[in-house]
Amino acid sequence: MVIKSTGSWYKLKIEDGSILNARIKGKIRLKELRVTNPVAVGDFVDYELEDSGDVTEGVILNVCKRHNYIIRKSNKLSKHGQIIATNIDMALLIATISHPETSLGFIDRFLLMASAFHIPTTIVFNKVDLYSENELAYCNNLSELYSSLGHPCIKTSLNLAEFEPTKMLNEVIKNKKVLISGHSGVGKSSIINAFLPNAKQKVDIINMHFKGKHTTTFAEMFFVDDNTAIIDTPGIRDFGVIDIPQQEIAHYFPEMRALMSKCKFNNCIHLNEPECAVYEAFERNEIAPSRYQSYLSILDNENMFG
Length: 306
Ligand code: GDP
Ligand code: ZN
Description:
Blueprint: E1 2-5, E2 10-13, E3 19-24, E4 45-52, E5 55-63, E6 69-73, E7 81-86, E8 90-95, H1 104-116, E9 121-125, H2 133-148, E10 153-155, H3 165-173, E11 177-181, H4 188-195, H5 199-212, E12 220-225, E13 228-232, H6 246-249, H7 254-257, H8 277-283, H9 289-300
Parallel strand pairs: 3-5, 8-9, 8-11, 9-10, 11-13
Antiparallel strand pairs: 1-2, 2-3, 4-5, 6-7, 12-13
Bound molecules: guanosine-5'-diphosphate (GDP) and zinc ion (ZN).
């Protein structure tokens, strides 16, 4: 499994659990996917060993079929994508009600993209120690809303023993490859560090964050135990820039998808068409106003995380 990629060098975790440096020889072509990097963190690859003097290196021969991947455009105009990570079992979206406030628009966009990439997402409301009574009540309301849409919600705090992140999340992430995302300042690094027993990994993370602010970097995977890994993703804000046709956006809002077949027009985008079942449900308060608002702004705005 590829656990780190720099674009020309790769780190593989091989059968016996050890780490092997590897590279690609020749060209690896991927069917139906135009990308700048054919091999990404999370990939399972076939490799062979190559002796070059006193070090043994790996040569990657082939990428095994992925069960999912996340991709972003290499740059705005490019038709090529860059794969950020593959074979992800779940995402943790770290959010905060305050200090700083994570907008519902951001949460809804993330959930849309994650579901387009087939990545189940749990929402983690961090820093609950800082919430006022009202904010806590609001947090509980949101937890109810998002749980009802299929996204479990968990409260955490680094400052309260009863909400300690590893305690709250251990079972959730066990034996999974977990993508961590969220706005800067919500506590991603703090939570990741809480999971990592060894100091070297922490240093790696800090370096990566530093680079992430200035240049394009690649995701790296950190092991919590043999079968549990966290993938931190610099540049995740660009994650949203993939093309979903207007017609399809509502498919990724489960509360809308359930109603769409009842709209009068089968090309309805649930804006102001007559006899739109989605809009009628919104008017009856059966779709949360914040969700409908997010839907409208996504329809309206191609730069998803702009
Ligand atoms: P990142 O940008 O998402 O990686 O966020 P950091 O992990 O760097 O955290 C940003 C700031 O929030 C740091 O000063 C942390 O010490 C602080 N922080 C993280 N988690 C908590 C928490 O649960 N409660 C409080 N009060 N502060 C936190
Ligand atoms: Zn409609």
